[in-house]
Amino acid sequence: MSEMTVKDFAVKVGRDVPRLLEQMKEAGLGQKAENDAVSEEDKRQLLDYLTKSHGGSAGAGAKNRITLTRKTRSRIKSGDRGKSIEVQVRKKRTYVKREEEKPAEEPKAQDHGPRQLVGDMAEAEAKREAEAAEEAKRRAAEESARQAAEKVEAEKAQAVPTEPEIPVPELETAAPSPEEAPAPPKEGRAEPRRAAVKKASGKAGKKGRDDRDDDRGDREERRRGGKKAKRAERRGGRRGGSQGGGKHGFQKPTQPIVREVSIPESISVADLADKMSIKANEVIKAMFTMGAAVTINQTIDQDTAAIVVEEMGHKPKLVKDDALETEVLEAISYEGDEITRSPVVTVMGHVDHGKTSLLDYIRRAKVATGEAGGITQHIGAYHVEDDHGGVTFLDTPGHAAFTAMRARGAKATDVVVLVVAADDGVMPQTIEAVEHSKAAGVPMVVAVNKIDKSGADPDRVKNELSQHGVISEEWGGDTQFVHVSAKSGEGIETLLEAIQLVSEVLELKAVPEAPGKGVVVESRLDKGRGPVATVLVQNGTLKKGDIVLAGLHYGRVRALTNELGKQVDEAGPSMPVEVQGLDGTPEAGDDFMVVADDKKAREVANFRQGKYREVRLARQQKAKLENMFSQMGQEEAAKLNIVLKADVQGSLEAIKGALEELSTDEVQVSVVSSGVGGITGTDANLALASEAIVIGFNVRADAAAREIIEREGLELRYYSVIYQLIDEVKQAMSGMLEPEWKEEIVGVAEVRDVFRAPKIGAVAGCMVVEGTVHRHKKIRVLRENVVIYEGELESLRRYKDDVQEVRNGMECGIGVKNYNDVQVGDKIEVFDQVKVERTL
Ligand SMILES: Nc1nc2c(ncn2[C@@H]2O[C@H](COP(=O)(O)OP(=O)(O)OP(=O)(O)O)[C@@H](O)[C@H]2O)c(=O)[nH]1
User: Which residue ranges does the record annotate as region Disordered (predicted)?
Assistant: First the structure.
């Protein structure tokens, strides 16, 4: 065809003249009126423009092509199980305009610019297509399984010439090119495509009965070929497509997009489908044909997922469990301009030395300044402003909070303020606090408190602390001692300055523009507000609306509340803030971070929840005394950490000394903490933080400690004979732990009342609170979790009857043989000695 007018052209391409003129103008053509002539060159230019504007390739090679895609769905019977699979076929066809051809025209579809011209080009292309299809067909013939493809190709080739001015949809159905750039779905599922193509076309009403018959034939063939053949076919199909594509001048090699699908150790069906960019239904169906009935939310394991992915024609990539987490975390950038952030302080010290008073004083004096009402809330932390940029105090004094955080690997504290009452001096918990902060590598400032008191003797504090390696600056050490009174407020300013001084050395930096991250200080379930967590932002800024991952939980920040109870929109570095919107209550010490993707946050949280259990189990194994050494790598310096508690100072010293003497060149035994008294939650947390085993010598763990020990799978051992304790540790060190006799506590009774009778002595009215109390087993009497007597029972009675055992929840009368000093509140522990095989 030679030249035509815009009007003619508009008629040909089925578009109205003004719109066409507009497009021509956009394409840089000069036509302004409907009677202006349109040359071949103009058409090409317009086509080129439209192709480009629709995302087509604009390169020289792509100049004269147009690609059509069409999606069809069909069902095919799969395999010999007679199950059917829904097959989605994406067909793509590229038409290449030949120089000498005149563009034909036609289509419709307003918003598919290139499509309209396609029709235009189609006619010209028909011949070439036919040739190309033949070529593809030849190649396809190399593999028998690809017969279906050939047919379709052939049909495609025929489709064009039979109806020169075919509307676009006709053309689309023609080419079953498996390739597909933008629309991922189903690609991988290439093979069924072969058979399904025609079926789909037939469904669309574009094909005749013959086609459908052929289609059936294909299916028959496929059925006969079995699975292997199908796979071969699929592979072949891809190859064939690709080769044919080259000949056709297709835009891209017509290979199905084989995606590399990363599969975590477990994944939900929905997420797996998502990763392959297909509908979950299709995964469910595919799995069904493989003999597994799953639901959309069901989580499948990695191996199964890998098979499904392969079956779908993609490449599974098995990723390590924490890969997703790593990916999510690594995707967060904390780069930017740094500012100096305020120090975060934890106050520690012995009971009654004034930690709470000090925190309260500072809060009252500082936080409320200038704030309406000045009422502060307890949210677990607060920030005070001073002349040097402020200080944040973690408002949960004590070692428990500190160790709980450290146990979770969190380093929330920059500076420890060690409160020592000037009238009381260094006490056991003072020493414990020193141990904790040293172990955590956190610098200390000593607040010598109660300086207002008449008995205050600050020099004594200095002196006593120096014996524990905390030496005052005045004495040539590096620790600042500040005299304060939490009552009068004396010295508080100086204390804040001292904190600032220490923090300057630390050079605490943060990037306020970065996404917020930090640590959970505490959390609770609020009746009205749901899970509420106080977090300390350590870097970046946490904002309302952010998606947050916190420990095992995640959520979108619904509200942020500061320590004054005021809603805020954001919290910057070193600021504590209460967060609402999480789906659960994270633990103190859990990390939190703002992540970009809601779904990924959920995935990581889910993963962590699953992992949590495994990690605990793993830790249980590792923490076993028996396993500790066998698991140490050779290059690893072997170290056995012990948290030791004993009934009296004498035994404590003796055991500690003996244990430390066990150290050899290969294995170092280190008592990270020791003390007199029952095993507390703090001890357990410290053991967790330092990967230590807990040893109780004639002492027991309290409820809090037991909870942590159990939950975290720590190793706890009770002993009552020193040499046995030392011996077992020694044996473990030499890797020769024999089958051992281990004590097992089988029942505990609490003394509720004590009756004294002249003949039989003291009888304790008890309630069995754990296990079963047996008449003939050995017992110990515990007072405040410390063993005060070991022996056996004289009598065990229910009402007036002598019984052999009394179960949990029942009352009974207990007489302890040769011991009459039982008191209300004591516990009677019944134990057994069991042989434990050594497990390595
Ligand atoms: N005279 C005087 N009394 C103080 C001072 N600081 C605290 N006290 C008193 O010491 C007692 C204990 O203070 P707390 O602040 O409860 O001590 P704590 O270290 O928090 O104690 P626990 O929470 O039990 O570990 C209280 O009666 C306070 O009033 C002080 O500087 N001077």
Answer: 51-258
